[in-house]
Amino acid sequence: MKNGFLLNTCFLSCFLFLLINYSCASKKHITSTYDDYHLVWSDEFNTDGIPNKDNWDYELGFVRNQEEQWYQKENAICKDGYLIIHAKKETKKNPNFTSKSEINWKKNRDSIKITSSCLITKDKHSWQYGRFEMRAKIPTSNGIWPAFWTLGTQGNWPANGEIDIMEYYKGKILANIAWESDKKWTPIWDSETVDLKEFETPKWHEQFHIWRMDWDENSIKLFVDNQLLNEVDLKTTFNGTNRKNPFHQPHYLLLNLAVGGINGGEVTQESLPTEFVIDYVRVYQ
């Protein structure tokens, strides 16, 4: 009887040890640390429901690049520790429609056929320099255009500066920054692309990956899974129009799932619905 009790106690202890360790291993790491950085802001998306309104606002409607999607809040939801941005077919009237003859592409579409979301930290959070990190699984079907990027708080695009920490379309990962040339509204791009076929991991596009930017007063470095994709010397990034450097000012974050448009490519029947799944977004300084 005594031996049986000890055996049962030992079994129970081992079971609890395994259960506790499994639970800890399955939890999301809240505070990844780096030797020279400390965490200054993050969203772990651990609360089910709408994204944290203290962190995120939204772009609404048809916004840029002649993209097919209509941005709305409803397509972004937090569930099971992830932010999920859905792009889907949804038909309704364009409330901004004026006339088919209008040159303005945002107003001459009489209907909305695809919806998605773009979340932004503008007027809520912005940072000058640091390590910006996202862990996410991106959709890669035809015509789909997910992105994790920043814009400067001062000035109009591209004079305010754009940093594409993660951008994908047409089978390629892009790591870009842009600023204004000598001609107003015309960007200079420093862009690097990697074909998905170059990643040797099987089914790379079906897995989570970590995108990172290291940004200081001297340079911007863009990575995926610690692989350096692009490095830009900030001595070269002064706007031609006003001689300001847009990468010496605070930037805010954008997370969006675009469809089609000037870069996204043709959307096929199989492309939708799809989703952009984000585990966390963190900023260190």
From TrEMBL:
Q: Which InterPro entries match?
A: Beta-glucanase-like, ConA-like_dom_sf, Glycosyl_Hydrlase_16
Q: Which Pfam families match?
A: Glyco_hydro_16 (PF00722)
Tell me the CDD domains matching this sequence. GH16_laminarinase_like (cd08023)
Q: Where is the GH16 domain?
A: 43-285
Q: Name one GO biological process term.
A: carbohydrate metabolic process
Q: Which domain of life is it from?
A: Bacteria
Asked whether the keyword Hydrolase is assigned, the reply is yes
- May I ask which residue range the UniProt record assigns to the signal sequence? 1-25
Question: Any idea which GO molecular function terms this record carries?
Answer: hydrolase activity, hydrolyzing O-glycosyl compounds
Give the matching SUPFAM superfamilies: Concanavalin A-like lectins/glucanases
**Keyword set for this entry?**
Hydrolase, Signal
Q: Which family does it belong to?
A: Belongs to the glycosyl hydrolase 16 family.
The protein's name:
Glycosyl hydrolases family 16
